[in-house]
Write a structure and sequence with these properties.
The protein is an alpha+beta fold and 572 residues long. It contains 15 helices and 21 strands. The chain is globular.
Length: 572
Amino acid sequence: MKHLKTLLLASAASMVAASGAFADGHEGKRGRDGEVKIIYWQAPSILNSYLSGGTKDIESASMVIEPLARFNEKGELVPYLAESIPTVENGGVSSDLKTITWKIKPGIKWSDGTDFTSEDVKFTAEYCMHPEGGCAQSAKFDGVDTVEAVDPLTVKVTFKEPKPVPYAAFVGGQSPIIQKAQFQDCLGAKAPECTEANFGPIGTGPFVVTDFKPNDVIQMAANENYREEGKPAFAKVTFKGGGDAAAAGRAVMETGEFDYAWNMQLAPDVLAKMAEGGKGTPISAFGTLVERIEMNMTDPSPDLPEGERATAKHAHPILSDERVRRALSMAIDRPLLVEIGYGQAGRPTCNLVPAPQAYASDNTGCLTQDMAGAKKLLDEAGWVPGADGVREKDGKKLSLTYQTSTNAVRQDFQALIKQWWQELGVNTELRNIDASVFFGGDPASPDTFQKFYSDVEMYANNFDGTDPEQYLGQYTCEKAPKPESQWQGENINRFCNADYDKLVEELGRTGEISKRQEIAKKLNDMLTKDSMTIVPLVDRGRVSAAATSLGGVVLNTWDSELWNVADWYRKK
């Protein structure tokens, strides 16, 4: 496997060292700069990344709990709790690519003052890999056979087969280490019940949670046991959640009430007007964030018994027909959506994986709206216009419920898409749900994007790093959310294709870079171009806003946006 061994042999010189102190004179006493205020208009509802796939939960938790390694703003692997990135060259990855051994930095303490050890890393794997746990990040552990605590500072991960890219488990903001002592009684089905741990995890990160009001406010304080001298610069964090993107943007760029606002999903002219306020400035970068429509492959009808609704027991009565899904996609004018919603911060796309370029399919067929072709497809599928203009088949109306989170741009998209679908003869009911609830992952809520109690839904997400293996691996049959997994799972639309699953397995054991790229493109196309179970709309640039007085901010589209919050400081 010289192929990917070449990548793994990439010397430590190519692996960027963990971010250290800024060489700009901003050293000093921990907590010297008082309070920093962060606003996410999608409010966090839990601080355990393994029980939520919501970005706002993962990123807020990343200030507290950390991985062994993560990706920097260039997409390069950097060590965090580990001493270095294991490679074949340095002996950390075995020559047969079946094991990876991590060496933990000595002296790391949990925020409660106890030692961070390999047992915590081993336990984290047990927690996520538990068959009854419903781990939201289970794809990170695909192919893992065992995790061994060799000694207090050494962890050895053994894979079932050679793993050409072994940097998934314990890497990135989606796969942090949780403390064994705090979570050891929270395995399996008990995981959601451990409210105290899930709302206030003990961590190794720069901050500790002092108070958490779900879907509202998190209060944090500097971690006095943080491993880097003089960091964090801020003594306190107020992390406000809720509201909308416009209010968050104004709070940073116009009023100066907050220091950092995440995900400015606003029309370009609105963003430019806010920036004139002079208190803050927008920052942006492209990564792998794709706004898409997911087609539900299962029946979400409320007439079904609870426990069978939106599960594999019942196929969707309308969307199971690929021709219907394809027609709905063909009716969408993606360039117009970009123009209205994102301007230069967006690009129309047909791909679930738009980047890095080497992994992006040349799939461009959806970029031109084709209303006539869409109508023809529905005709062929037997859906004919009724007297009221709504298509019918076997006495059933072509009627769909289309849900997303509450956000001005998303509601604009809903209105336009509803108009295009009505032109096709599709009756469309729109729902918008508070983002904190929609992305919250509460197994008791009927309104989460994982539970998917509607016909189609729209949202955006991305993946850590630059290799899409785990991201594409989320759509295997076993990863569909279901009652048995507390409605956790990454395969949101319940797509299930044996050939897809086999190809994911092949990607997991393929080392040759060009072959990996070829397989990834095939998987992307199976979900999008070939089946239209996922309908990509916009390749979105990440746009946030930072106060002009806030230093050290480095926008990262390959990991948690708050990845280097320990380095933030107040400009003098």
